[in-house]
Amino acid sequence: MCRAYFILVLLLWAEGIVAQSPSKYSDSEWHEFWTGRHVSCFEQDNYGYIWVGSDDGLYRLDGYKMVVFKNDPVIRETILEDHVTALKEDGDRLWIGYKERGLSCLNLKSMEMTHFRSSDTLPNTMPPGITGRIMIDHSGVLWTGHPRKGFSGFDPSTGEVFRFPQLPGISTKHSLSDQQSYNSVYEIVEDSKHRLWIASHHGLYVLDETRTKLELIPTPQDPSSPYLDVVMLSEELVGDTMLYLGLWASDFRSYNTLRGTWKVYDNVQYSGIPYPAFNEIFWDKEDGLLWLTDEWHGIYGLDLSSGQVFFEKLPEDKSNYVGRFFIDRDDMWWQAGPKNCLMRESEEHSPPSPQQIKPRISGVYVGTSPGFHGEVDTIYLQHPFSDFAVEYSALRYRGRDKIEYAYMLEGHNDNWLEVGGIPFANYVKLGGGEYKFKVRARYNGGEWSEAAEFHVIVKEPFWRSTWFLVLLIVFTCGLIYGAYLWRIREIRRLEETRSALQRRIAEEEMRALRAQMNPHFIFNALNSINRQIVKSDTKTASLYLTRFARLMRLTLDNSESKQVPLSSELEALKLYIEMEALRFDHKFTYSITVENSIDQDVASLPPLIIQPFVENAIWHGLLNLKDREGHLEIRISKSDNQILIVIEDNGVGRKMAAELRSKTATTRKSMGIRLTEDRIAMMSQETGVDAGVAVHDLFDSQGVAAGTRVELRLPYSIIQE
User: Per-residue pLDDT tens for 65-81?
Assistant: First the structure.
């Protein structure tokens, strides 16, 4: 993008403008609109902007302000140098020539700048430095002159350069400096036969249509002026044959390209000075006038039909020096002196049509940005930086004070706002959405023109965007889910704490139960020893005491453990059964069977968990038998996550035992069986595995009680290393 420095200089033309056609010069007035710069050239582009090249940069005028383009050595996309010497409109492009550099091309829509190299030595490049106008021939080739280096052409479509560095016919008798000076080319014009006419310091040349043959046009010999210093040509041939030339410090003349004849206009002079310094020619086809600028004296008008010459004197307080002169499409006169620019309005014959004053968007500024001055279709803004300003102009320099504007921003305010001659609009803090800016113009209260427009898209603030809402929903869901997971973890932690506490309580209760069972068993064992001593059976008493000691040792070893190996539990159980069998004179036998799949050293049980049921079977089932020998059978097996312990006797059965039960026996039952059942219930609650006690009565084939079977279902567990 071409970098531009923007000077907010309103072109306020004081005292108003007097309308006057260039042909009616007597009543027209000049007004100063710019000072302080030396102007090299004027040009009006395809859209109507006036471009001014100076020694201090490139300027674009829209009737209200100037946009300034300056060289910046840091940024490539600027003009190559500040001294602009030539401008040429070419559709949507503007060609720019420089005093010491080559060519640049500015795209008037995108404002992008393209540069073309210049060099005296590199092949296929133009020489540096451009003088006079840039001319575009019928094939689109650009032609321009160079100081002391002839002229050249450039084809933008192919990039090919055509160089003519040396003009023919320059005598080598001159000094080298003079020879180089004579080689300077100022103006180039193409005729209908596609020949090029070249104005140079050495004379008038013609280049044929094939661009191969360059000839010097012979002139009437003048001993005092052996060559013609042709500094200007008319932009086109009048009547396709007459070429008008201005000579430096000499005269004004024409050349008939058909007949090859010259004509000198001796009457083109001012105040008796015979040698005006001409440097610009403009042909007004409508009025049949040639307008000539004299660098020293002012502006001449030559009526081609009558030969009458008019002289346009500048204001008394301004110098008559005219460096550059330009007439725009509205017959506005623009002229530049050494350090000032003057303008003058022609008489307006009829008001412009609405189409002629359709405004253009001349500048868009977003926030504090320097602005964009090219073709605008859509601008994008981001909330909250949604401020922007628009400049617009009808690009009509004549009658500018009679132009009125109205604008609207669809989507924000759908009513036209009439603002008179104000050429700008501002909007601040626009909300998100799509808008369309429109501006129209009318002349002197007439019909409104078609509107110029562009789109404005303000992106919604991020908290209103779909992605943010989705992200917010996801984040909220994640937060809720995280809170849910945290709550679940807290509940589980509380449950684990509660379970740990309950386990601790259960362990303490089971320890208390074991503490209650041990005295109960010890009481019974000491009673048995006491009976043997009373009976004076010292041998039996000694054997009983030995087994009792071993049983106490096992009981003490297991008393602090929640679980003991099955082998240790069965060893204690065998000692107890043998002690009871010895105590009751072997009135019963017993057997213990363990399933082979159970590793007795690995599988574990709570200590003394079987003993109360074995004791109950012996005391209340087997000891009451009269007609048969008693037998106690213990079977241990495994099923899934449970261990099944069956204690079966062939005693009198529960009904008969209840009839024979004594008060002591009742107490034993209540203390032993009840405490063990409580232990099993706590084990089930702690482990979550179903555990319990089931008691079944056994009968023979005649229905007579034949014993009792007790089934213990306990959680299967193993000893942890």
Answer: 888 999 987 776 789 99
